[in-house]
Amino acid sequence: MPLQQALVDEIEVLLRYNLDSTQEGIKVHHTARKELISATQRLHEKGLVDSADGGYLTDLGHEAAEHTQAALRILTSD
């Protein structure tokens, strides 16, 4: 199953979250790549982040980010 670029962009946004603190969100500025802005808006529509420009992860978003970051660690380990 090939990954669509839009999904890769959403994964990239999820990878930017620091999972060590629930009090730390992100802000995707209007100067960011348009693909990341769109990806963040889609994550908001899916209920994974609490704001269209990033903000904080929802419970579902935190779970998705944990899995995404864990998969990246596994796939990039030696």
Largest sheet: 3 strands, antiparallel
Q: Name the structural class.
A: mainly alpha
- Count of helical stretches: 3
**Overall mean confidence score, pLDDT:** 95
What Rg is obtained from the alpha carbons, in whole angstroms? 12 Å
DSSP summary, beta strand count: 3
Quaternary structure: single chain
Low-confidence stretches: none
Query: What percent of residues adopt helix (DSSP H or I)?
Result: 40-55%
Element order: H for helix, E for strand? HEHEEH
Q: How many domains make up the coordinates?
A: 1
Question: Order of strands across the biggest sheet?
Answer: 1-3-2
Overall, the morphology is: globular
Distance between the termini: 24 Å
Percentage of β-strand residues: 5-15%
Could you explain how this protein is built, in words?
This protein is mainly α and 78 residues long. It has one domain (5-76). The chain contains three helices and three strands. It has a three-stranded antiparallel sheet. Helix 1 crosses helix 2 (34-45). The protein is globular and about 35 Å long.
How would you summarize the topology of this molecule?
Blueprint: H1 5-15, E1 26-27, H2 34-45, E2 49-51, E3 54-57, H3 59-76
Antiparallel strand pairs: 1-3, 2-3
Helix pairs in contact: 1-2
Structure at a glance:
53% of the residues lie in helices and 12% in strands.
Name some characteristics of this structure.
78 residues; three-stranded antiparallel beta sheet; 3 helices
